[in-house]
Write a structure and sequence with these properties.
Largest sheet: 6 strands, parallel
Strand content: 5-15%
Number of strands: 13
Radius of gyration: 26 Å
CATH superfamily of the largest domain: NagB/RpiA/CoA transferase-like
Structural class: alpha/beta
Shape: globular
Number of domains: 2
Distance between the termini: 66 Å
Length: about 500
């Protein structure tokens, strides 16, 4: 998997920096709150929403159990429809395939439909290195590209920008990449969209090669599907002579009828709409209509490794709706850049370590800890991925990975062993509570009032600093529950 966000620190460090950006936090709170409300309204209209979630889960799990069969069927259907199928084991192989196709057609530019898979493999960078400009045509992706920025949300990549910032980016950068923005451009959304439309139109009409992903790939018919809200995808999928679609192997669905379930789940979960304004489906090549050369790159890039993980494989059900991001209290306060991955938020905290593997770099290993385990992500996931379960599972794998090759126990290991020894004996636990009570009296003198009014401790030294650098520690109680019970005879003395 491509390390797209080169040089990003581990999540705690990146999150701390993001938390100090008040404008970012305001932008995120407004955007995620709006999307949450829209989603809740349209989901509330569906009487059988939970049955739809169960159906989506079941279909995806069936695909994952029989993935080789459905992929072979998909290849046969695509080939019969006139498409050329390529298999890519990793990002480098996928990039070489797409670059070779562009160069063979002497293309010096391509237009792109918004695609997480192509971001994952770093396709834009690979094309640029080969002298081929890759133009993003999704409005939010265009904002990110013009601003020399990085996407911070699966659905709304420019969620961290407000409209005043977008206006400045358009005025400053559009002329360097094509048609300039009108000099009197305001930050009215309608005017910003019109400027983007005019800027992109010349690219649509000029480009000979387009690159897309796919939300779904139907094995039965060889049909690929893209859902979007702006129409830019429809332009990319119909105007150029050559279309290259990079599709993760987990995107396959068994039958055309299965689309019915996901075309109800996805728009409501992502944009809070009953149906996406543009749902495009194409099956290979149609003589005289649309692209006359169609390539499909089926991408692994760590997906079979994720499939082999009996707990983590459920992450491959993901349909990239971003509902988990919009309800996550951690994402809402830190934004997507802090995750240091193409896939931010709760799903990124599990998907990235599963695709990349753990135990190799600090940044990836920090992601399973980027959560409070509140469970809100599971409640809204349209395909019922139990993200908290996978997070806990991956935390265990991170710990185990760091144990390998080490003969000395870590500070965490020693702390857990000490806690186990203490708590396994009633007598030792009681003695520890008495010591803690004495410590609490001393700590009370050192405490200060938190914003809520309760006394808290400041930063603690040594190993404990890892906890207190990001949290307020409440002052321990001076009396344990056991001592209170003995003193009040189980509460009866106080009651009397």
């Amino acid at each position: 998997m491509s390390a797209t966000f080169v040089g990003m620190p581990a999540f705690p460090t990146a999150a701390k920096a993001a938390l100090s950006d008040t404008q970012l936090r305001r932008n995120l709170a407004h955007a995620t709150g709006t999307i949450r409300a829209k989603r809740a309204a349209v989901v509330g209209e569906v009487d059988d929403w939970e049955e739809l979630r169960l159906a989506g889960e079941a279909i995806k799990d069936r695909v994952l159990r029989h993935l080789p069969h459905y992929l072979e069927q998909l290849e046969e259907s695509l080939t019969a429809a006139g498409a050329t199928v390529h298999w890519a084991r990793d990002a480098d192989e996928a990039n070489r395939i797409v670059v070779d196709i562009a160069k063979r057609h002497e293309a010096d530019e391509v237009v792109k439909v918004k695609s997480m898979a192509t971001q994952e493999i770093g396709l834009n960078e690979a094309l640029e290195a080969a002298g081929v400009h890759a133009w993003e045509t999704d409005l939010a992706e265009l904002i990110v590209q013009l601003g020399d920025d990085l996407p911070s949300h699966i659905l709304v990549p420019a969620i961290h920008r407000n409209r005043a910032e977008i206006r400045e980016i358009f005025l400053r950068e559009m002329g360097n990449a094509g048609r300039a923005a009108p000099p009197d451009l305001t930050d009215v959304p309608r005017e910003l969209a019109a400027a983007a439309r005019a800027h992109l139109r010349e690219k649509f009409l000029r480009a000979r090669v387009a690159v897309s992903g796919a939300n779904f790939a139907v094995a039965e018919t060889g049909t690929l599907t893209v859902v979007e809200s702006e129409g830019n995808g429809r332009m990319c999928l119909t105007l150029p002579e050559v279309l290259v679609s990079v599709v993760g192997v987990e995107k396959v669905l068994p039958t055309w009828a299965d689309l019915e379930v996901f075309l109800q789940l996805l728009p409501r979960s992502s944009t809070g709409e009953r149906m996406n304004p543009y749902t495009s489906t194409w099956t290979g090549v149609t003589p005289g209509d649309g692209p006359q050369e169609v390539h499909v790159v089926l991408l692994d890039n760590g997906r079979t490794d994720a499939l082999a993980d009996t707990v983590g494989r459920q992450s491959l059900r993901c349909i990239r709706c971003s509902a988990c991001l919009n309800v996550c209290p951690v994402y809402e306060r830190t934004g997507g850049h802090a995750y240091g991955s193409v896939y931010p938020g709760p799903i990124g905290a599990i998907l990235t370590p599963l695709l990349r593997g753990v135990g190799h770099d600090e940044q990836t290993d920090s992601l399973p800890y980027a959560s409070s385990l509140c469970g809100a992500c599971f409640e809204v996931c349209p395909v019922r991925i139990d993200i908290p379960e996978v997070l806990v599972h991956l935390r265990g794998k991170v710990v185990d990975a760091h144990k390998e090759g080490s003969t000395l126990p870590s500070v965490q290991d020693m702390a857990m062993r000490a806690a186990s020894w203490t708590l396994s004996s009633s007598g030792r636990t009681g003695a520890a509570e008495k010591v803690a009570g004495l410590g609490a009296k001393i700590a009370g003198r050192l405490a200060h009032a938190a914003p809520g009014g309760a006394p808290v401790l400041g930063a603690l030294p040594g190993p404990a600093s890892g906890w207190t650098n990001a949290r307020d520690v409440p002052v321990p109680a001076t009396e344990s529950f056991r001592a209170w019970w003995e003193r009040t005879d189980g509460g009866r003395t106080e009651a009397e």
